[in-house]
Amino acid sequence: FTYLLKNAVKKQLVADVEVGSFLSGGLDSSSIVGLVAEFLPKQTTISFGYDHEDSELKYAKEIADKYNTNHIEVHEKKEDLVTALLKTSPFFDEPFADSSSIPHFEICRNARKNLTVVLSGDVGDELFGGYNFYTVENKLRNHFSYKNIIAQFGLKLYQKLKPISFISQQNIENKNILDFHQNYVRRAFSKQEREALGLHSDYEQPYSFIPDPDSLNDIMRLDIEDFVPSNMMVKSDRMAMANSLEVRTPFLDLDFAEFCIQLPENLKLSNDNDKIILRESMGSYWTETIRKRHKQGFGMNVKNWFTEDSLLRFSDELLKNPNQKIFNYIDFKATQNLLTKDYKHWCLLQLGLWAHNNNSFL
Question: Quick one: DSSP state of residue 230?
Fold first, then answer.
């Protein structure tokens, strides 16, 4: 494991220019920075955080200090969200609702002031079960079926068994953790909501294998085949290229990724821990504080965003006017019922903005 990851990092460092690293202070980026230190006498790291928010900057500084990097810490004052949206949306040729695209654009913009190539810790979560929902799914699998548990304990008591918002009356009908993952984790809207909007056909992604519906390994592999190229890499590439920056991802090295995909689940996560093999193999590269960390993430709380008057006015312009182009494709009345200042609202706003931007092509 360690040999393959070291080799992946070494290969990604080959360049005619200086190669820096994004450093969030999480397990993945800290591992990359630690390994780079074995090949370069000095490296540049860059971290980003909005002012007045609980960012990861303090953790990133710990790792930067440990390896004595040329550390660039960017404190960005949050700009008007409408301005940020109008700045980033033209770089996507399809509706794109990942809220982390806005801060990712900013870290790429600031990185480009000093670097042209950076390494990223992306895809560690998909390879090693780092997202919270993987842990949730692992626990759910151990308590299936939903109906049996609800019948024995009642929904309210069952909700108390796990610190999750994932359990609700709406999703207890899922047959297995694969259903749960595809219907709840990877889809913003329920089947009923999609039908109300007028979207009556589901897009089925063809996969290279038939997944075991109760295998977390298979679910993580599905995410690597689908979510990573269609979401994560789209965001990373578009926001980087918009700033003339190249981002390289050592965790996607073919030899390393293939090795990790075939590892058994018990080397990736348990009910109590995530990224087990990464923690065991790379723990010596981290500080004690980092060793105890779990996933924080780079996404933003869109509920907080919808407290901004300018964003609400912008949303009203795009989503409360029945003459907008978007309503040639989705139902106006059903849309109004979903403007609840949450992620669904955010998705509809991105669709409305995309339709507005591409009005002449639709």
Answer: I
Tokens (6 digits) for 182: 């595809």
Would residue 297 count as lying in a domain?
no
Mean pLDDT of each 10-residue bin along the chain, 362 residues long: 98 97 96 98 91 77 97 80 92 92 93 96 96 88 57 51 49 73 86 90 78 94 95 97 98 98 96 93 95 68 85 96 93 96 94 86 60
CA 255 to chain centre: 23
Within 10 A of 23 (CB to CB), how many other CB atoms are there? 33
| Total number of domains constituting the chain | 3
Q: Is the sign of the CA dihedral 304, 310, 311, 313 positive or negative?
A: positive
* Residue 226 covered by a domain: no
Separation between Cα atoms, residue 198 and residue 102, nearest integer Å: 29
Amino acid letter, residue 354: W
CATH number of the domain bearing residue 67: 3.40.50.620
Q: Is the peptide bond before 145 cis (omega within 30 degrees of 0)?
A: yes
In terms of domains, do 60 and 199 share one?
no
Q: Report the SS3 class of residue 10.
A: helix
The structure tokens listed for 343 are 């992620």
